[in-house]
Design a protein that fits this description.
This protein is α/β, with parallel strands linked by helices. The protein has 2 domains: about 160 residues, Rossmann fold; about 160 residues, 3-Layer(aba) Sandwich (Rossmann fold), CATH 3.40.50.1400. Helix content is about 45%, strand content about 15%. It is built from 13 helices and 8 strands. The strands form 2 sheets. Strands 2-1-3-4 form a 4-stranded parallel beta sheet, sandwiched between helices. A 4-stranded parallel beta sheet has the order 6-5-7-8, sandwiched between helices. The radius of gyration is 20 Å and the shape is globular. About 45% of the residues are buried.
Length: about 350
C-alpha cells in the first residue's frame, strides 16, 4: 500500500492561554523559525514573548474557534478525508502537523502500521521557506531515520506556480465573489524576516553570492537561478500566475506581506500599512486573497478577515471581502489526487 502524508503547520489544542503558550513554545523554539543564537532565542522566547503573547494570541484564537475546533485543523482533516475518498483503498492518507497534534512522527507510524512501505510527503506550503518547508522536512527526515524499518520516501514540496494550484485558488475566488466586482485585489502573503530571504539566495557557478535577493526593487520580477528558492520571489510568481488566470490588469492588484513579529525588518510592503494606502488611492471595494496559506487559520480569518477588514473600513473603505483558502475544495482535492497518482 502507498501512503500519502499531508503536512501542515499546526495549531494549539485549544484557545486557552495555557494551550497557546504550549504551542508557541514549541513553534518559536524552532531554530528555523527564530534563526538567532540559541541563547538569544531562549531569552527572547522566555523573557519577552511567552510572558505576554500567549494571552493576546489566545483571545485571537477564541474569535476563530468553532464547535469543530481550530479551522486549520478541521480544514486539513476535511482535505485528508476528501483525498482518501478520492484515492481509494490503494492509498492511505494521513495528516501530520509540524507543531501540535497530530504530529509528523505519529503520522509516519500510522502509515507504516497500515502497511505503507512507499510514502509521498506533501507539505502544504505553496512557496518554499526555511521556516516552514525545511523545518517540516527536518522533522520528517528525523522521524524516518528513527523508524526501525525505513520506508521509501518521496517529497513533493513547493508548488507556487503549479497550474493546478493556481486554478484551484482562482476557482475558489470566482465562486466566492460571484458577480461582486472589487475595485482592487490584494494578494497578502505571510511575511518573513529579510535576513531569511537574503539567506535563501543561491550562489553562482563561482560559489559567490551576487546580492540578488532584496538587492533591488526588481529582484522578484522573475525567477532566476539566484532566487529560485526565495520565498518572496515565489510569492510574486504566484501573484503573476493568479493575475493571468483571473484576467487582472497591472493596476488592479497589489502584493503585501502580513504577520510580522518583532522589531527586525521583514519583507515589504506590509499588509497593515498598505490597506489604508489603498483607501487613500480611491479603493472602496477590496478583495483579499491569501495564497501562501492552503487552509484558513488565525492569520487569514482573524488577522485579515477581522482586524484587516476593521482597519480598511476605519480608513474609509466600504467593503473588504476575504476569499477563503483552497481548504478542502473539490478542485483542490482533484489537483492533489492527480499529483499523488502521478508519482505512483
Amino acid at each position: 500500500m502507498r501512503g500519502l502524508l499531508l503536512i501542515n503547520l499546526g495549531t494549539p489544542d485549544g484557545p486557552s492561554t495555557a494551550e497557546v503558550r504550549r504551542y508557541l513554545r514549541q513553534f518559536l523554539n524552532d531554530p528555523r523559525v527564530i534563526d538567532i543564537h540559541p541563547m538569544a532565542r531562549w531569552l527572547l522566547l522566555n523573557l519577552v514573548i511567552l510572558p505576554t503573547r500567549p494571552q493576546k494570541s489566545a483571545k485571537a484564537y477564541q474569535k476563530v474557534w468553532t464547535e469543530r475546533g481550530s479551522p486549520l485543523l478541521f480544514h486539513s482533516q476535511d482535505l485528508t478525508a476528501g483525498l482518501q475518498a478520492r484515492l481509494g483503498q490503494g492509498t492511505k492518507v494521513v495528516l501530520g502537523m509540524r507543531y501540535g497534534k497530530p504530529d509528523i512522527p505519529s503520522a509516519l507510524r500510522e502509515l507504516q502500521q497500515a502497511g505503507c512501505d512507499e510514502i509521498l510527503a506533501l507539505p502544504l506550503y505553496p512557496q518554499y521557506s526555511s521556516a516552514a518547508t525545511a523545518s517540516a522536512l527536518d522533522d520528517l527526515y528525523d522521524a524516518v531515520r528513527a523508524a526501525p524499518a525505513q520506508p521509501t520516501l518521496s517529497v513533493r514540496a513547493e508548488f507556487h506556480a503549479e497550474p493546478g494550484f493556481i486554478d484551484a485558488v482562482a476557482t475558489v475566488a470566482e465562486e466566492h465573489l460571484g458577480d461582486w466586482k472589487p475595485d482592487h485585489w490584494l494578494f497578502s502573503y505571510h511575511g518573513l524576516p529579510e535576513r531569511q530571504v537574503k539567506a535563501s539566495e543561491i550562489a553562482g557557478p563561482d560559489g559567490k553570492l551576487a546580492g540578488h535577493c532584496l538587492g533591488s526593487s526588481t529582484c522578484c520580477d522573475r525567477i532566476v537561478p539566484a532566487n529560485r528558492q526565495c520565498y518572496r520571489a515565489q510569492c510574486y510568481a504566484t501573484t503573476r500566475a493568479l493575475v493571468t488566470r483571473l484576467g487582472l490588469g497591472p493596476t488592479e492588484h497589489s502584493v503585501a506581506f502580513q504577520s510580522r513579529l518583532g522589531r527586525t525588518p521583514w519583507i515589504r510592503p506590509y499588509t497593515d500599512e498598505i490597506l489604508p494606502q489603498l483607501v487613500a488611492q480611491g479603493v472602496k471595494k477590496l478583495a483579499v486573497l491569501t495564497p501562501s496559506f492552503t487552509a484558513d487559520c488565525l492569520e487569514t480569518i482573524e488577522e485579515i478577515g477581522m482586524r484587516g477588514k476593521e482597519d480598511f473600513l476605519k480608513a474609509g473603505g466600504e467593503e473588504l471581502r476575504l476569499v477563503p483558502c483552497v481548504n478542502a475544495h473539490p478542485r483542490w482535492v482533484e489537483v492533489l489526487a492527480g499529483w499523488a497518482s502521478a508519482t505512483s
